[in-house]
Amino acid sequence: MSESLVYAIEREFPWIAVEQVPSLAEACAGFDCPVALILLEAEQLPEVAAHSERLSQLHPFAQIMLIQDDGRHEVSIKDVVTARNIRGVLPMNLKLDVWLSVVRLVLRGGEYFPLSLFEPIMERRPPNADELDEHPVRRVPDGDQEDFYELTDRELQILGMVARGLQNKLIAAALGLSEHTVKIHLHNIITKLGAHNRTEAAAIYHERREGLGDRGPDDAAAVRAPQPTA
Questions:
Q1: Residue 175 is inside which H or E element, if any?
Q2: What's the rounded Cα separation, in Å, for the pair 137 and 135?
Q3: CA distances from 29 to 21, 86, 181 (A)
Q4: With the C-alpha atoms ordered 44, 45, 46, 51, is the resulting torsion angle positive or negative?
Q5: Domain 3-118 falls in which CATH fold?
Q6: 185, 132 Cβ separation under 8 angstroms
Q7: pLDDT at 166 over 80
Q8: Euclidean distance between CA atoms 5 and 112, whole angstroms
Q9: Which tens digit of pLDDT belongs to each residue from 140-153?
């Protein structure tokens, strides 16, 4: 990152000190101040999963965001949205005031995904049996969580993304589905959970995840959906 951008960040956010390290591995270290935001170059996205747990331990309040330069390493919306703890993509071709506004948004817990990420996505396919995944994968019920375990793997995945605050269009783009198919899945999720709307379904998701304890996302009984970001 250029010295002028570092200066702009520290002037706009005087409580922030910018430190630069050459690799994500070297960010897995203690710093003099708590880390609020980690900006990664887009080509470092595949490394996030390997370092995610360590980063969470060392910097529990840090948001993680990708920097994307035009004409350089491109990332797909699916890779970004399904990656653990990534809160969005920060284009480097924005006007400075807009660029700083995006940084401010993420510092406050928001997410930002530029429209350019969606441009390569072709026309959506109509829903079919494979997309709807009508046959649920049964899991062992656990008391009042029985309704939660009736959800299919696809429904769990979509519910996890809804719980992160993602809208149907973004979910559809990330999973390669039509927006109509996502709406059908969401309707089924709300019905199975006995919820009244997507907000209530998201609240149930967070409540049920607490009941899963420390089991990881690959556990057969755990939610196999993107992890909510702290």
A1: helix 168-175
A2: 7
A3: 10, 19, 43
A4: positive
A5: Rossmann fold (3.40.50)
A6: yes
A7: yes
A8: 19
A9: 334 445 556 678 88
Better-predicted residue by pLDDT, 60 or 218? 60
Average pLDDT over residues 35-52: 87
The answer for 121, left when phi > 0, alpha when psi is -120 to 50, beta otherwise, is: beta
pTM for the full predicted model: 0.56
In contact, 40 and 66? CB cutoff 8 Å? yes
The residues spanned by each domain of the chain are 3-118, 129-211
Dihedral class, residue 207 (left if φ above 0, else alpha if ψ from -120 to 50, else beta): alpha
In whole angstroms, what is the distance from residue 66 CA to residue 44 CA? 8
129-211, what's its fold?
Arc Repressor Mutant, subunit A (1.10.10)
- Give the total residue count for the chain: 230
pLDDT given at position 9: 93
> For residues 150 and 143, what is the distance between their CA atoms, to the nearest angstrom?
13
Listed residue (167, 178, 174) closest to 128, CA to CA:
178
CB within 8 Å of 162: residues ≥ 6 apart: 171, 186, 189, 198, 201, 202, 205
What percent of the chain shows pLDDT beyond 90? 14
For 12, other C-beta atoms within 10 Å of its C-beta total 15
